[in-house]
Amino acid sequence: MIAELISVGTELLLGNIVNTNACYLSRKCAELGYALYHEITVGDNEARLCEAINTALSRADVVILTGGLGPTEDDITKQAVAKVLNKNLVTDEDSRRKIEEYFKFRYQDNPKHTISENNWKQALKIEGCTVVGNNNGTAPGYIVEHNSKVIILLPGPPSEMIPMFEASIKPYLQKRQNKIFFSNMVKICGIGESKAEADIIDLIKAQSNPTIAPYAKDGEVHFRITASADNEEEAKRLIKPVVDELVKRFGINIYTTSEEETLESVLVKLLKQHGLTLATAESCTGGLLAGRLVNVSGVSEVFGEGFVTYSNEAKMKYLNVKEETLRQFGAVSSQTAGEMAQGAARAAGANAGLAITGIAGPDGGTSAKPVGLVYIAAYLNGSVAVNEYHLKGNRQKVRELSVIYAMDLLRRMILSQMNNQQF
Amino acid sequence: MIAELISVGTELLLGNIVNTNACYLSRKCAELGYALYHEITVGDNEARLCEAINTALSRADVVILTGGLGPTEDDITKQAVAKVLNKNLVTDEDSRRKIEEYFKFRYQDNPKHTISENNWKQALKIEGCTVVGNNNGTAPGYIVEHNSKVIILLPGPPSEMIPMFEASIKPYLQKRQNKIFFSNMVKICGIGESKAEADIIDLIKAQSNPTIAPYAKDGEVHFRITASADNEEEAKRLIKPVVDELVKRFGINIYTTSEEETLESVLVKLLKQHGLTLATAESCTGGLLAGRLVNVSGVSEVFGEGFVTYSNEAKMKYLNVKEETLRQFGAVSSQTAGEMAQGAARAAGANAGLAITGIAGPDGGTSAKPVGLVYIAAYLNGSVAVNEYHLKGNRQKVRELSVIYAMDLLRRMILSQMNNQQF
Predict the structure, then answer these.
(1) pLDDT digits (tens, 9 = 90+) for B332-341
(2) Pseudo-torsion of CA A49, A54, A57, A59, nearest 10°?
(3) Residues in A 395-414 with any Cβ partner in B closer than 8 A
(4) Is the ipTM of this complex over 0.85?
(5) Interchain CB distance below 8 Å, A23 and B20
(6) Tens digits of residue pLDDT in B100-136
(7) What is the number of alpha carbons within 13 Å of residue B409 lying toward its C-beta?
(8) Distance of CA A349 to CAs A346, A353, A381, B283, Å?
(9) pTM beyond 0.90, yes or no
(10) Distance between CA A371 and CA A358 in Å, rounded?
């Protein structure tokens, strides 16, 4: 079954808001096994909207529209669909009553408030359609079945659209599908996208069911393995050998095979598992590593403190980095990084320390120490590991990659020190 | 002039990533005076991509494509454009050399690393096009002029696409317009979007040239004032009275009227202007405030150190928060926040301290101290100001808003203490 999305709203075309609805609905379509080949955004213009609906109907089984159901002049989605299908708009008595109740409740302190003509627009429905209740606003949704096709109209605000989709549209779409789709994520850190793909190009080329789709994120590569089957058990049975093969090929580079887990949550989990505590010391990343760890709810069990030591003085004062080290090797050096990691752990009384020092740019680079040079050190139970990185990108990117590589370094160190393979 | 956007990538159609590129480019088109009537997303499928390009060329003067320029099998944007225009792909020697340099630099410690066949794909260009340099990745962009139309190909990752657009595509598109569009940004912190809009609804309703467009960001409201004119001076003359009026109405709530300035850069500038130094102390934000300050290149002049004190022990050890204070009022309290700010400044020998302590959720809330309760304290030359906030949203949002409000609190405190209005 093929679906197509049409997002309606001039505010999208002006770039006033990010179209998160398209992302949400795309994901839902994929989960429900509807193939999505086109997503369209058009403004509040009847001719262009009608054309988009016609085109979508010519190539998809299900057309989902979001936006343009509000009470104002430029909300025209319902009219456009009615026009394309050559149907009338008729009053839905139930919707009319709900609008009355809504305004009565909202303006209970102001009995003189009258409902404007525009608001009654929201009581109109396309004849023969199913009206879908909206518990979070005044605009109902609509399901229109027409010949063998379905057109679904949803309100634009995500706070109304998402609960409506979950409650009413998802079960409806599920019923129209006979297959279920199930997927598993394999998340990798420490290998580039092209290398990762090259390593499993034979699997990618041979794929049919399940499919293997790579996604490159900054510093990471994710593979989604998706199977379609009659039921979840059958899908899982199809997926398992592919995931097993990836685990065999990528080994320790895989940090999780769970959709929900992130690099920081995996690191925090590992620390907890081994009864370890961590302290951080950051120079060029200025707190981003600590900030990312604190993403994990409940991190306080393993992480109590961190240091942002941007200046040399702070590195000496809090982390006990030697003046001699700074003078001889500089703040951006393997030696300083190592002393920072060890110093942070000591100061905090933690088992592990993680330190980042580097030149994030755009200024501060020299030919000997160019922008992008970053040293990352991990200290764990008496040992220190330091890696040197040459990172490409702007200040922001250098700092984000540094944070990712730091977490990955400690993850690997814990796994190897504990001689405890994750998989 | 009409523009059309085509976003290419199956990951978009699967809902794996939000299409922020479309939002960014839509806004840029609006700013440059290009009318945008359609935005399309298609997957990595040649036939559908070619069809989308053909359709876009039939209705727009400028077609902008993002994505599908990478080295992997499913990166097909260049091939599709060449096919539609009936042109060849030829090797661009300059791109070839850059790829060699990139990999030589990246794998300098591993001389055995060879460049895979896939990577050379990125050295191919559509014959007769202009190659646009990419300082943040290996995929160049391309500008193809064909008959009276223009096709622009940009890489998908925003960290590569945005700098390329700003440096090369924006000036190119500007030159193709006969009118110039010039705009000025008024950035506000401390007032909600609807309040801000209501305060200038008369100006918004009366707008024609210049136009006034509001953009709500987390914790901030930006108004873009755009004039079209024959030249920049004329546009600036049209814009000035509107900006002046906004400055009059919003006063100290405006932190800048410059496009380039951010809240953190304005705060760092203010600290520099007044010869002040700052230290940070963070609990629930875990380093994000320090990380955001360090966004500003050259921040080291005013910011040398910060503390991530997630545990009570760390708050006492480094910031000298009294055990009695923690016991009597709790870690999330006005008193603790105040002591943290003062303690951070004292420990670092700084004039100013900024502290955040709160409950970011999803766990840890109680009826007395619910999720979203955050105390922010600023210390400046002996005085302490503490604000209590009740923030809405998930963990991430509560933490981001906290960072913004903290910076804004210190900004206001400096301005009022120095009795030195910014405008």
Answers:
(1) 999 999 999 9
(2) -110
(3) 395-397, 399
(4) no
(5) no
(6) 887 887 777 777 777 777 788 889 999 999 999 998 8
(7) 26
(8) 5, 10, 11, 18
(9) no
(10) 8
